[in-house]
Every structure is written in structure tokens, then in C-alpha cells.
Amino acid sequence: xxxxxxxxxxxxxxxxxxxxxxxxxxxxxxxxxxxxxxxxxxxxxxxxxxxxxxxxxxxxxxxxxxxxxxxxxxxxxxxxxxxxxxxxxxxxxxxxxxxxxxxxxxxxxxxxxxxxxxxxx
Amino acid sequence: xxxxxxxxxxxxxxxxxxxxxxxxxxxxxxxxxxxxxxxxxxxxxxxxxxxxxxxxxxxxxxxxxxxxxxxxxxxxxxxxxxxxxxxxxxxxxxxxxxxxxxxxxxxx
Lengths: 121, 108
Prior knowledge:
Number of helices of chain B: 0
Number of strands of chain B: 11
Largest interface: A-B, 21 and 22 residues
Radius of gyration of chain A: 13 Å
Strand content of chain B: over 45%
Largest sheet of chain A: 7 strands, mixed
Oligomer: heterodimer
Distance between the termini of chain A: 40 Å
Shape of chain A: globular
């Protein structure tokens, strides 16, 4: 059974940093691209970033490029999102999601339960 | 960036009724479109991929159609568990992957 479990969310001041983690199990982690998708309170879904199965290719939404860094440790079956220079508009539930592709981006077959990031003073 | 516009924003229907949800793309996405269902407090769940392919375990009352710029998700007869928010997502031109704004299906 595929399981994705996010952690690392919390309250942070504007300009601060946070690192999210997503522990994966139940599948061959290195065989799948992974993404972070966020959802601001009461709003829709926004794709944030993705990384290929090997970790060699990364992609970002314009809204986070230069501030967020996605990475993965395939030996630990864990996905990360380093978030720097956080803004109030980054406040959201952050989901990790398994893509069905290894290198290209497709659709999200599995999602974690999400972790809430709140950026506020 | 491909913009996906979903309509209506809210659909008020009764149990057993047919729901028709629309997703329009700002440019052709061929058939590279998915539909997700999200219930309050839960993560989204994949329903349909490549416009018309039901994901494993998804009931047959859910069907998707369309190509190019116009897509439809139909729920043939609403069950209590179908009242939720539905999102479309394209993978034709990325990055970025983009989602529509969502359609809420509520009980009338």
C-alpha cells in the first residue's frame, strides 16, 4: 500500500524558513517523480514543485522559484521542500504527491494527508 | 501557462441526479487532462486521467470526455459520498502543471 506522510509544517514569521519532509513507502520511490502541491485556506490547488525519480531534474512554479528548493533522498525514501524567504501568501496546506511518471510529469495517483504551513507575525 | 476554467463554481443537485461539470483550457491540451475529487479535510483523489480513463477503484458512475480545450466530467447518479469539490488538471504543457479553480457539488 502506497503511503505518503508529510511533516515539518508549522508557524513561521515572514522572511523565515521551513523544511518539509515527505516519507514514502509501499512503492519503489526512485521510480517515480514527486511533486509538492499546496492549497491556501479555502482556495484551490496549486502545483508548487516537482522532481524526477533520479533527482536530476527539478521544476518550480514561478511563485516559488528562487525561494523554494525541492530535493529527494532515494536511500531514505524521502522527499523534501526547503522553503526560504517565506511570505504570507505561502500559507497553505502542503501535499506531497506521487506522479505516475519517472521523468515527465503526468498526474498524481497518490497524495499525502498534507502539512499546514502558516506564515504570520 | 495553460489556464483551466471550471464551471459552474457551484452545482446544487439532489441525490440520484446527474451532475455535469465543465473544464475549459486556454489552449489545446489534447487529451492530457485529469479530474480529482476532494472532500473537506482530505487530500484530493484521482478520478479520471487522460480525459476519459477511470482510475482504479473509481465507480462507473464517473465518466470523463472531451479533447482539445473542452472537457466534461459526468456523475450519472449522485450518491451521498459524491458531494465534494472537483478539480481538473492538465499535463500537456509543463511546467507548470495547472489546476482549474474547482467546482463544488453540493446537496440541494
